[in-house]
Amino acid sequence: MKRLLHTLLLPAALFAWSASAQAQDAQTQGITDTEVKVGAFGPFGGPAYLFGKIAMNGIEVVFDKVNAEGGINGRKLVLIREDDSCRAEGAIAAVKKLVYDEKVFALIGGACSNSTLAARAEIEKAGVPFILNSATSDAITTPVARNIFTSQITASVESRAQVDFAIARGAKKIAVVAMKDAWGMSRYTPLMKYLDEKGIKLVANLELSPDASDATPQALQLKAAGADAVILLLYPKPAAIMVRDATKLAFDPIWIGQSTINDLKAFNAQVGMPGALKNFASITSTKFDPSDPAIAAWNDRLKARFPNDEISPFNMYGLGSAQVFVEALKLAGRDLTRDKFLAALGQLKNFKSDAYFGPITCNAPTDHQCNRTPGWFAWKDDKLVTLD
């Protein structure tokens, strides 16, 4: 009987031991005495590369500076990049490669909302810490997953801010022009809810496709409705066409954009009409253009490290999230594990980076959306300015 019990119980004991060992290995995966491996995923090309490659460049310069100063608790930070091509299958594959092949300690990045949302289940299952820095869909961080945080302002925060901006500017006839894909709806749904809460009836509620080449019909409808403020839930290309065609018709309301359109230098060139942005404002989560003297040191680092790139506000997405990552890593201490890192990240309070417009506060375990302070950019006298 004893032999039989031993025979029956031994496999179970070995399985339990193996599971425990694997869990412990996962806690310290990607950590050695000298380095911490960090994975980043996002598009390297295409229109969304700004949120991927360019944001990753911002991460890289922060890690370079940290490493030049001796690392964190004696460990250098190693960034490993994977291209997800802004596609759902690409993001899932990139996450799997980073976590299971490259065996990174944590992830930072996530450029496109749709693709990052598709990878959420795999990230949550792996238990790998993830700091989101570009994608804005609330569904990536809601409901709360223990290991997923965002340092970017979310779509719902931006949508409410757009309505409040219109009201503060005295708008009486508000209109919306939106894309109705998954990205657009992640903004449109909370926007409509907030408008309803405010008792605001739109004078026009229009759609414009991402690949639109002409917005004259929409511009005519907006003008006929007498809209004095137009909220844009559009990518930069269709938004530029919307503003361009409205300007051709001498229709010049208050234009209210969101963070996807915060590179106003590039956007102004896309519109291609002098003075078209005189009443244009767009949300930003970052407080400076990289060329601003206030962050000259970071601007110099970006130019030195990536001389072939034009410096962009999207570099700041990476810079800010990397500083959040580094702060949590410092707080977690030398005896580093994933659990300790997540605990430190979840307890960040009023952390001020060199990039974000407002402080970072992570109210774990109930709220992992750590950035709730949108700012505003405008284009005045051929330069980017921050509005009060």
Describe this structure in words.
The radius of gyration is 23 Å and the shape is globular. Helix 3 runs parallel beside helix 4 (113-126) and helix 11 crosses helix 12. The protein has helices at residues 2-27, 53-68, 88-101, 113-126, 155-168, 182-198, 216-225, 236-248, 264-271, 296-305, 315-332, 338-346, and strands spanning 35-42, 76-83, 106-109, 130-132, 148-150, 174-178, 204-207, 229-233, 254-257, 280-284, 375-380, 383-386. It is an alpha/beta fold and 388 residues long. Strand 6 (174-178), helix 6 and strand 7 (204-207) form a beta-alpha-beta unit. Residues 16-21 have low confidence and may be disordered. It folds into two domains: 35-153 and 292-373, Rossmann fold, CATH 3.40.50; 156-284, Response regulator (Rossmann fold), CATH 3.40.50.
